[in-house]
Input
Amino acid sequence: MRLLSWFGMLFICFVSGGATCAPRNAPMPFPPPPTVFNEAPSLDQIASVVNRNQMIRQLSTNSATVKLLSMPSLPRLNATMHLERDKNFRLRASLPIVMGAGMDMGSNDEVFWFEVPEGISKTLYYARHDQYRQQLERAILPVDPSWIMDALGLVQIDPSTVDAGPVRRSDGRYEVSSMVSMPNGIYHRICFIDPSAGHVTDQYLYSPSGQLIAESHASKHAYYEQFQCSLPHVVEIKLTPNLGPPLEMKIEVGAYTINQLLSGDPNVFAIPTSASNMVDLNTLSSGAAAAGQPLPSNPVNYSAQGNPRYPLRGDLR
Output
């Protein structure tokens, strides 16, 4: 299996919590969120509504399905997920027989990892968050896991970082551009906001060079009255790393459990220690294996993607 194909499969599970072959029901229809904007909102009003999701500290589901759109031959997968702000993920998953079995993926405040079977042993791919952020332009995956949490409905808007907007688009939605400071420069995140309910529907992340490296499109929002905010039950994500082809996936969630983890394991966010092989993704991203740590079989090198023009405000989709 090609290296980037593995990462495409792994990343889908990292985001959504695992996979099996059996189909799972699509989300039920939800009543529309209430109207919060009756007239053109200010930036502070938009931020206030979007940031209501800060009341959500934990999110779990055991009724998700995932489809890897960039690998259409793969079946739709069942999924479970545990996440906790700001960087905590954990899953243990079995994959379809064609891909092997026994996958363990997660993240905590210090590191993120993917543990996969290779032959009769297991290999743990890992990276420290702080080190990975230093070389995102060369990384296998172009975004930090916290961006994926944003895509799942937990995005926040800090008015102090906004450099443009809100601008009313031709489709009625509002557009807000924010600066994101990273070690290699200033990124730009563009958010589209529903003109009535005030939730974020689309996100685009641009590198300092103007390359679109990640985007998400959320729909079928359900309103959670206790938290006065909406969460999407369908999310499409596209990642465009410099080192390989785009990865596209669609996540559908039947039901969420909020501020409660569906796991009784006190070490649910601890990195596993049973793998016989370990590979530091920071060395893999830069094209060299760490001393004594094997690379996956048959790695594939790809040329860098193009550098599309950074779009004008209101000219994104």
